[in-house]
Model the fold of this input.
Amino acid sequence: MRRGRALTAATAVLALAATATACGGDDGGQSAGKGKIGGTVTYWDTSNDAEKGAYKKIAEGFEKKHPNVDVKYVHVNFGDANQKFKNAAGGNSGAPDVMRTEVAWVADFANLGYLAPLDGTPALDDVSDYLKTAAGSTRFKGRTYAVPQVTDTLGLFYNKKMLKKAGVEVPKSFDELKKSAKKIKSKTGGTALYLRGDDPYWFLPYLYGEGGDLVDPAEKKVTVDDEPGAKAFARMKDLVDSGAAVTDSSDGQENGLKAFQDGDVAMIVDGPWDIAGAQQGKQFKDDKDNLGVAPVPAGSKRAASPQGGWNLSVYAGSKNLRTAQEFAKYMSSAEVQQRTTEELSLLPTRESVYDKPSVRDNTMVEFFKPAVDKAVQRPWIAEGNSLFEPVRGQMDAVLSGGRSPHEAADKVGADFRKLLKDYK
Done:
């Protein structure tokens, strides 16, 4: 979502600075670790429709452990959550005590002064147990502003029966996928791949596959308009033009999943959050073994996917910081992470949870854990989430034929430099 007006954000930062200091911001929030646990904790959950029922029960389970606490669970649609939180925090009214934040939001919210630092508070429990990749997204300018809840990356979901009927192997590269597309079409009537053209997160495997990246934070350099960026756009366009893939610019999440569920496409690039949804489709509901997962196909240089996931952040202006910290600790605990894997096949952020038999033997975890270990770290900078919007517009322009791949890469690079004024 787009950032709010600069004046509003600046005013909010000044207003919240005093709040953060009063809550122990100067000492990393250590003083907030004292006091009794009780009162109301409002929790904004941004999970999807297949997950929210389980998360509601888990969140309310905190009340059993702490009878003096009332958990107010609020489900907020992912697409609205970022701006809704900024509006509430910026206006210092209506923000939740704890929020399920996408990994790229943490640095942005922390930079605005909206998040309470968690170092030295009960929220950070057994931090050495967290995956290093997952923990990386919780820190900003030397402080910790979130605890990792789940981690993820992208993989290739495929319909085993369709590929078998077509007589093709699971593609290891996009070149192989393109070559197999005609056989899949002639033997099954379906298209090889649904290509998400509406979400910039799905651009990253193509960019990484060509050896590129969005920016280089260490060198403060924009890199998306280097040659790999243009090649990534060209790869996506070629898959669609050749008939190997179908796409649309409306709702790729819903349309792509439905096409895969119904057998209209044999493959889709997706993540662990859609495993439960995919298995509800007619192609998999009565035969869950028909769902296969493999690494995202490689580009000309490598196969690579972005690190994603969700963290739990505490609002700097919370009137119940101590209880909010304990709630974040609970929702990120090994016990809760094991449960979400068992019920939803989501990937834990704690190493110890992967040793549990119910987690270790989960077929989706078996694939996605090694993939997560190798996932590419995104730039954890305050503007990181804002970088996606310029990419979104150019994906649509390229796939609709309105702009060439090189023109699109150049336009994204120019837009990045406007956002990142100290980058070259």
Notes: Confidence is low (pLDDT under 50) at residues 1-31. The domain at 155-306+381-419 is CATH 3.40.190.10 (D-Maltodextrin-Binding Protein; domain 2).
